[in-house]
Amino acid sequence: MNIRFASPGRRPLAVALSVALLAPGAAFAQSAPGGTAREQALEARIAELERQVQLLVAAQRPPAAPGPVAAVPPPPAIAPPARAAGPAAVGPAAPARGPIQLTTITPGAAPGTTFKFGGFIKADFLSTRTSDGTLADGAVGRYLYIPLQTPVGGGRASGVDTDFHAKFSRFNLGVDTVTEGGDKLSAFIEMDFFGNALATQVNNLYGGTLRHAYVSWNHWLAGQTWSNFVDANNFPESADILGPTDGILFGRQAQIRYTRGGLSLSAENPETLTTAYQGGSAVVASDRGAMPDLTGRYTWKGDWGNFGVAAIARQFRTRTAASNDTAFGGAVSVGGRWVFNARNDLRYQLTYGEGIARYLGFGNGSDVEVDLNGNLRTVGTLAGWVGWHHVYTPRLRSTVMYARADYDHALAYAGEGATKTQQSVRANLFYSPLPKLDLGAEVMYGRREIESGDSGDISRLQFTTKYSF
Fold first, then answer.
1. Which residues contact 337 (CB under 8 A, 6 or more apart)?
2. Is the pTM of this model over 0.70?
3. Which residues in the chain come in under a pLDDT of 50?
4. What is the three-class DSSP state of 361?
């Protein structure tokens, strides 16, 4: 074998490779003619190494080197080493690529664990007008629709507020594992930046907010996520973080859940929202209940859409100087999504029960009210929403929705300031000029009426930009 070197600087490398090739050859020279099958395989491997050295030397020659590079004949066929049985490769081999990183991103996880990262950046631009007073500086109702914060008073000066923010941007992390025995394990955590403890519109120091944090294995789940009483899969698309807030079930909390097929059962963190005697619209939270909120849901799915029925049983308890009592309540909800065709679907939900205001919107009212003797009385509630979604083109779509909730307060207990009815209507238009980029505009009108008959209106124009990843 003759090898030319393009320059003296490459001579040590070539000499070393030549020695590596010639040493086994010398050993073969001492073997009997013909050799064994093992010796023939070694000769074939040496021939392959010689071919690779020639290619390496040719690649190191300067472009100006005279004469063409001699073609290297293909090596003889080499029998691959024995390996475990598995699926045969299909098609040409993919080019070799180096690893993205040298170590796994989840070094403490079980072997075979996959990692995912996602979320979106969302910027909102809002202009809000209220008919009977202004929203307080820093009020949550300045950034999303909170029915209880709609000013009511009749005749007070109206106000217009403009707010820009990006606090609803979020990110999430998740891992999934399937063990050798077929068990499925997963964990998920998600945060946004809605925390307001240190924030003003001067420093914009919005804190992180925990949305989801749970682990699941096979049919079980433990941790914080959507309540089983909530049908989060059917939320309508909206520029507002929620949309039909008046009548929609909404809430994330710690729980333990069992799911098999379309059936899911859960025990969840309890909380009681109370209106004190003659407390009006003021709501006080209490976590004195001993029984967890117990829920059950069953969902049917098909090409036509989906339909679900959910039920909840609750215990209410307060322990204050004015009240130390316990009551029970519950509710039933139906809802789903009807698909008419590829461009139109209708989403809806209807809920009725005693003491379910905590699960409506962002806690739209009270679950119970206190009478003159400190006893608890559950508040009957009927709530619902409907939304029509239409796709104009692959890039353009819109949703129109209406929501309403009616509360059966006892005027003698709650007082004239308690909310009697709240409702809203909104329409939006979304355009996606690029994949995962959504530009949206939405108009909303809401109205809140209290037991005295007074009412207040709120209207909002909102623009949003969201890039999902």
1. 234, 305, 306, 345, 346, 347
2. yes
3. 1-34, 65-91
4. coil
